[in-house]
Amino acid sequence: MTLPIKLKRGLKANLPFAASAGEPLFTTDTHELFVGTGESVVPITASDPALANRVEELEMHRSTVSSTFSEEFDTLTYVDSEKTTAGVVQGRVTPTVTPDFTEDFSTTNYFDDVNSMGVTVDTTNRLIRNSSGIKNGIFYSKPITIPSTNKVTINAVVNEPSTYAFSEATRFSYSGSIFSQPMGFTDRTNRTWKVALVNGTGIHARVTNPDGSLSFERTILPFTGTTHTLPFQSIDYVVDYNNRVWFSISHSSLDGAVGVVNSDGSTFRDWYSIYLGAGTVIATSLTLDNQNRVWVFHSVSSYTRFHVFNSDGLLVTDLINILSTGPTDYLCSTYDPVRNQVALGMVNGNYFKVFLFDSSFRNVRNIQLAHGGKDISIDMMYDPALDKYIAIQTIYTGSTNSYTVKLYSLHPETLVQSTSAININANWVSRLIADGPNYHFVYSSYAELNKYYLATFKASNLSIIDTSVTVSAFAGKHFPFKDSNGVLRTLSLTSRYDTNQAIDEYTFGASKSTVTLEVTNNNGLEWLNAIPGEEITFPTLSSSLLLRARLDSPTINLTPELYGYRIVTGTLSGEVIQEFVSTKLPSVSPIAHASLTADQTLQEGSIDWYLSNDGGATWESAVLGRKHSFKNPLYADLRVKAVITSPSGSVKSPAISGYTLTSSNLLLNPAKTGTSLTATMSADQILNAADTFTKINFNTTTHDALQEFDKNQSRFVAKALGDYLIVGSARIKSPTTSPNGLQLEVRINGELHKVLSSIVSYSNHSWCLNGSSIVQLKPGDYVELFGYSFFANSVIEALPAYTYFQIKQLW
User: Fold this and answer.
1) pLDDT for the residue 225
2) Which listed residue, 230, 497, 621, 761, has the most CB atoms within 10 A of its CB?
């Protein structure tokens, strides 16, 4: 009988101080192995030097990558409606009984077009919105038949977007110095950074905590020497996964420089010149990938190039050329975590161009968008909810300083585009700022000197919400951002204080559109407010209801939307167990760990949470606030489920107002041994049939460290994803007929990939043909060499110097 191996198990906090020599111990919470020595307990690696060295090597090459997603149920984007049995209304998930009536606006059967005013039913998108040019519309339903009752609950799903208005401006800079290139952003601890270059001094940084208290304010990355003076062409930043802030500046004398600070503002890496040579560094842009590598793009005279740094500040790759013709006036870059690729937008030759790079720094696709004319500006961002690149461009339309704005939605794989032109005269646009489903930007126009406006558009269809918010009438471009509390702000150069360049900080307040529901059961004699999710009691019983909704907006360019509603009659009673299930959530890929927190109210019930990283095929119980490790860390489809139990007789049910889910994985990048294969023939091979493809019998290997060559099948089978160099050669013995010939080809998974070489000879001499090809292979792909003889009984000679099959993994 086989006896099971038993290990002493328990929490790490309860680990004993000593155990018998050789006794293994396992911590169930941290998943660590320890071994007893008789007098103490030591980690298992301490008793095995070889294992300790291996662990140390892996530790040196690992980095943790994380992604955080927050849900407040203001839309149904990440709600799996087919599997969710609980109600999702008014930003809450709570148990509901089966509705007696459901309206999803797929038809106009219950739309009272006689009494409704200023609203439009969109049956394609299944919603009601204000008609064009209307700020205050009203929707009436036709009579709805229900079981006779005096108690109803209306569950509705609405979208109430906000527009912005200027609130106040305060001075950011101090007197006596010249400021330029202001920027604002938040770091990974949700602190707000406001920074600007100070001529000849360094970067002035003011960092505040989410509660508004000051974290620190001082000069960071101080300049040295006399070269750090105006003019600075551009500046960019990125916050890495260690919460270090990287800055890149373009400067005619510095040739471009990169500097890095720790989260407390102390210098991690002092300014480093990224390009030394003739020419002026015109533009720069920074992007972070999921390996915590920082991509630094810059343009120098007629060259556009990039470098990549590790998080420790060391160069991974240096000076890769993208373009070598024409100046690049604008650069903007963004990262797509789904495909692990970097997108670069640029203005080159007055064209807006976009380039895609994979994780090995190769340009995999590019596209040339519209010609913008003179002095155009651009920006581009990746939208994780839409899985699209959202971009903006100004376009010169005439000889009288006339401009317009063009918006783009680009597919991240094909760069197929949808576009929308905005009828505003804007010769300059700022960075795009994401605000839920909407985007903001600031623009200015030659037509109105020193006038700056805030514009808002919807990312899903590129439709304009508002363009009329006046920001300021002072000279100086604005740089918008959202602070740690989600407040929209801008930093702007201004000359209103003194002759030197100063900086103002502008704050904006939101003005929200609203949907107000009312219901009546006496044919409109008395209307009662219908707050979604709350029970309504009528004075009398009735079996007919009318519903109306007021759609109010602060501007004609902004409209609230009603996506549908449900009517539930009676009072919820008895124990009810219902579920909320999400769709696929934004996350890292793959997903090894996740941590979940929730804003929930239990009342007298309970809520049990579950996580899945395989699309819901397997659900694993999760504890709020505790790091969860998935059983299989290679899956990449993150979902969350909540089982809500409301006990019998309870007055109020449990409810979920939102949750935050942080996913992470551990990236290991140790040195790897790639394929290095050489195979030859042990004996000559006769090609018996003419005009026939025959596989060449390679059955001897001189190099095959990874055991990827099948000698019986004369076939190489890849074990790892990568790019491979394939080399093939074959020597034909002296033929007895003339003319004669042979074709040598590579086949992948049985299909022709490339013809390496082909020859027709009119002599009876021996000859050799060979060639090479580069191909990307996936695990399980197989490669073979075939010969096609133009005559019968030709012989391939088994001479290793002439006939061989080689494969080398490039990366």
Assistant:
1) 63
2) 761
**pLDDT over threshold 90, residue 334:** yes
d(CA 645, CA 604) in angstroms, rounded, equals 9
Question: Measured on CA atoms in the order 308, 313, 318, 324, is the torsion positive or negative?
Answer: positive
Quick one: tokens of 210?
A: 């989410």
- Omega within 30 of 0 (cis) for the link into 182: no
Give yes or no for a contact between 82 and 101, defined as CB atoms under 8 angstroms apart. Answer: no
- Contact (CB, 8 A) for 32 and 43: yes
pLDDT, tens digit, 9 for 90 and up, residues 549-559? 999 988 776 78
pLDDT of the residue at 293 = 93
Angstrom distance (rounded) from CA 646 to CA 573: 9
SS3 49: helix
**Residue 58 above 90 pLDDT?**
no
Mean pLDDT of 526-539: 89
pTM: 0.55
CA dihedral 550→554→555→556, nearest 10 degrees, is 10
First and final C-alpha spacing in the chain = 49
Taking alpha carbons only, the member of 454, 512, 513 closest to residue 480 is 454
In angstroms, the Cα distances linking 7 to 16, 23, 59, 191, 474 are: 14, 8, 26, 45, 73
Q: Output phi, psi for 44, to 5 deg.
A: -60, -30
279 pLDDT tier (thresholds 50, 70, 90): low
Question: Pairing mode, if any, of strands 417-422 and 341-348?
Answer: unpaired
Q: What is the pLDDT of residues 583-634, one digit of tens each?
A: 999 888 788 899 999 999 887 789 999 999 999 999 999 999 888 999 888 7
Selection from 552, 579, 458 nearest residue 82 by Cα = 579
Q: How many CB atoms lie within 10 A of CB 681?
A: 21
52 phi, psi to nearest 5 deg: -60, -40
Return the structure tokens found at 240. Answer: 């890495």
What is the arrangement of strands in the sheet containing 24-27, beginning at the earlier edge strand?
8-10, 24-27, 33-36, 41-43
d(CA 765, CA 762): 9
